[in-house]
Amino acid sequence: MGEDWTNQWSGLRAADSREESRQEPRPESPQPRPESPRRHRREKEAGRPIGRRALIVGGAAAAVGGAVLGWDQMAQDGAMREGMARDMWKVPGMRKPRKEGEVDFTGAQWVAASSANWRMADRPADYTIDMVIIHVTQGSFDSAVKVFQNPAHGAAAHYIFRKDGHVAQMIRELDVAYHAGNREYNERSIGIEHEGFVDRPEDFTDEMYRASAQLTARLCARHKIPVDRKHIIGHIEVPEATHTDPGDGWDWDKYMRLVRAARSANA
Ligand SMILES: [Zn+2]
C-alpha cells in the first residue's frame, strides 16, 4: 500500500492546493482576483464541519488505501476505525452514488459542467447550505453553458436561467460549484446565473424572474434557508467580490416578492 498511498496522497494534496489558489475567472469579469490571506485565516477560524482534510489527515492510510484496495479489504485492515467507513465518501475520489443526468429541480435540463469547475461534496452533510447567490452571465445562456463546460474556465454555477424561463442545471446541489470567488461562500451556497448583462435590465424578463424565484423558493424550503436578503444575495455582496453582478438593474424588491410568494405557495 505504501507507494500507492504516497502517490495518491500527494495527488490529493496537489488537488487541494490547486483549488485553494484557483482564480475564478467568471463570465462577467476578466480581472483575476488576487489570493487573499485574510480569506484563509477566516476559513481556519471558522471551525469547519468534519472536513475532508481532517478526515484525510486522521486516517490517510486507511482512506486512500480504501480507494486502492476496495471496501472489504479495507474493513479487514486493522488500521481503519469504525466511523471512518461511514465518512469515506467525503474523501476526494470516493463517490456517493448518484444517478447520471439526475436534477435537483424538476424541469431543469441537465448539462454537466466540466468537473474542473466544481468540487465533489455531500452537502448538506459536510457543509451547511444557507445561501443562494444570484449572478448575471454577461452574455447569452448558450455562451454561459459553453464556458461552464470548459475545464479551463475554472468557474461554474449550479443553475443558469434563460430569458424565457428555461433553466439548465450544470452541477448538483450537493457539490460545491466555483461561482462566488470565495471558498467559504462557495461551500455554503447555491449559485444561480441569469442570462443577460448587468447594464441591461430589460434582459431580466418576467419569465426569468418568476422561474428563478420558483427555484430559490424551493432551495429555501429544502435547505431551510431564510427568505431574506442576508441569505439571498448578489455576487457583488460576497466579501471581497470583484464582480458587480447582478448589478443595479436587478430588481431585488420584485425578486424577493416573487420568492416569498412561491415559498408560501409551496409551504
Ligand atoms: Zn457572478
TrEMBL record:
Catalytic reactions on record: Hydrolyzes the link between N-acetylmuramoyl residues and L-amino acid residues in certain cell-wall glycopeptides
Record's compositionally biased regions (Basic and acidic residues): 15-27
Keywords from the UniProt entry: Cell wall biogenesis/degradation, Hydrolase
Gene3D superfamilies, per database record: Peptidoglycan recognition protein-like (3.40.80.10)
Taxonomic superkingdom: Bacteria
Annotated EC: 3.5.1.28
Bias (Polar residues): 1-10
Residues covered by region (Disordered): 1-51
SMART domains with a match to the protein in the record: Ami_2
Domain N-acetylmuramoyl-L-alanine amidase: 118-247
Top enzyme class: hydrolase
InterPro entries attached to this UniProt entry: Amidase/PGRP_sf, Amidase_domain, NAMLAA_amidase_2
Protein known as: N-acetylmuramoyl-L-alanine amidase
